[in-house]
Amino acid sequence: MWEMKEIRELKVGRYVNIDDSPCKIISISTSKPGKHGSAKASIEAADIFTGAKRSINAPVSTKVQVPQIDKRKGQILSIQGSEVQIMDLETFENFSMAINDDHESPIVEGGEVMYIVAMGRNKLL
After folding, report:
1. For the sheet containing 15-18, what is the strand order?
2. SS3 assignment, position 8
3. What is the pLDDT, as a whole number, of residue 32?
4. Measured CA distances, 19 to 14, 22, 64, 65, 106 (Å)
5. Reported pTM
6. CB neighbour list of residue 83: distance below 8 Å, 6 or more residues apart
7. Mean pLDDT by 10 residues, the chain (125 residues)
């Protein structure tokens, strides 16, 4: 799920969809409006699932998609190689999720872990 916002409303550290991928905004720079045009913005962002750098260059009045990022807590039920089975602590739903390469905190069976849900995809924090 996502909502529409103008580029001028975005802030560093928030999220934006670029090429149908939810990205965390790293930097925003804007130019002053010129004699024959509106102010322009340049946004640098990193894909939250792959880490790939992405950018947008557009007028500040342009509407963009802002994804709804849901941070949740789960309990690790089991670990099978590079995947973990997690039970959401609010809904008690069970699902499997791949362990991402940049995951830092220790993963132990029975332990709790934070994860995010964005646009139908999950990632461990």
Report:
1. 15-18, 21-30, 40-47, 53-59
2. helix
3. 87
4. 17, 8, 11, 10, 32
5. 0.81
6. 96, 97, 98, 99
7. 91 93 94 85 93 93 93 91 90 89 80 89 87
